[in-house]
Design goal:
The protein has about 300 residues and is mainly alpha-helical. About 65% of the residues lie in helices and about 5% in strands. It contains 7 helices and 4 strands; from the N terminus they run H-H-H-H-H-E-E-E-E-H-H. It has helices spanning about 1-45, 55-80, 85-115, 115-130, 135-150, 205-260, 280-285; strands at about 170, 180, 185-190, 195-200. The strands form 2 sheets. The chain has a two-stranded antiparallel ribbon. A two-stranded antiparallel ribbon has the order 3-4. Helix 1 (about 1-45) runs antiparallel to helix 2 (about 55-80), helix 2 runs antiparallel to helix 3 (about 85-115) and helix 4 crosses helix 6.
């Protein structure tokens, strides 16, 4: 009997440790999702002039999933520590909901990836047209060209006719007719007062397309990978809940059998039919002096 009880205890501890390990993996995964989501959201924010607003939904959803997964993992650890099948079942349901959110984030990221090229061509040319009129757009275009070391959308010829030739900022060495902003060149200082401007020749579209597309792809692949791991967590959670329920039932059965073998099991008293207590002569005399002892025998006649 003791060996069986020890086996049950060892099995329950193994189940707890397994669930703790799974939750620890989910904690690391949640931190990774939050980090990736915040990083991509920062990238999109830096180039928000060229990125539509609905592109921000995918990294925001990824960050939200990370925080929810972190809370659910802690909830699962508490359920394992208390050996609560109800909490672990709720934990499995919450993991299933997170799985649905991750699939939604992956699908939205894949859809957004197919929209990147058309979006960038539209927003970048629109920004060049507003370069002279909007200081915010001007700063965004200058930041893009300086950070990515590029000029124009497909090349510096995209600046033709945009900047006024009467008040040029800088001009290219190859063509005096195209006026370019200062952000299209990188200053190389040769001495204390001498400097040389090296003009960028590549357009910004290829670099921007790579940055935005890879960010969307990272969201899609990351959410998809975690979703498959998540569904395994859901299956394990329900299996562990079933195992804990069976183990707790076996443990209760062992305790009941031990009580039966030791003779300490007490049958509950039925308050509607209390056990018969025979009165002694003194008590019967007090209640009815003429009463006589009567002992019921199995063959005694019944009163109908």
């Amino acid at each position: 009997m003791t060996a069986n009880s020890n086996n049950l205890n060892v099995g329950m501890r193994c189940i707890k440790y397994m669930l703790f390990v799974i939750n620890f993996m989910f904690v690391l995964t949640s931190v990774l999702l939050i980090t990736v989501g915040l990083t991509i959201k920062t990238i999109f924010s830096e180039f928000d002039t060229f990125v539509d607003d609905h592109f921000m939904s995918a990294p925001t959803l990824l960050v939200a999933i990370g925080f929810i997964l972190l809370a659910v993992a802690l909830f699962g650890c508490v359920g394992a520590a208390k050996e609560s099948t109800a909490m672990i079942n709720i934990y499995g349901v919450l993991l299933a909901i997170i799985f649905v959110l991750e699939v939604a984030a992956a699908i939205s990221a894949f859809v957004l990836q197919g929209q990147v090229e058309d979006m960038l061509v539209r927003t970048m040319f629109k920004s060049l047209d507003k370069y002279n009129d909007n200081p915010y757009v001007r700063d965004a275009v200058d930041f893009m060209q300086s950070a990515l070391e590029c000029c124009g959308v497909h090349g510096r010829e995209d600046w033709e006719g945009i900047l006024a030739t009467a008040n040029p900022v800088n001009t290219t060495e190859m063509s005096k007719e195209i006026v370019l902003p200062e952000s299209c060149c990188e200053m190389h200082y040769q001495g204390e007062h001498e400097s040389e401007c090296v003009w960028f020749t590549d357009g910004c579209f290829n670099q921007m397309n790579f940055v935005i597309s890879q960010s969307a792809m990272l969201i899609a692949t990351g959410a998809t990978t975690v979703a498959f791991v998540q569904i395994l967590g859901v299956i394990c959670a329900f299996m562990l809940a079933k195992t804990i329920r069976r183990t707790k039932t076996q443990r209760a059965l062992r305790q009941w059998q031990l009580q039966q073998s030791l003779g300490i099991y007490n049958k509950p008293i039925n308050h509607y039919n209390p056990p018969y207590v025979q009165l002694n002569n003194s008590e019967k005399t007090k209640k009815d002096p003429d009463a006589q002892d009567f002992i019921y025998q199995p063959n005694s006649p019944s009163v109908n």
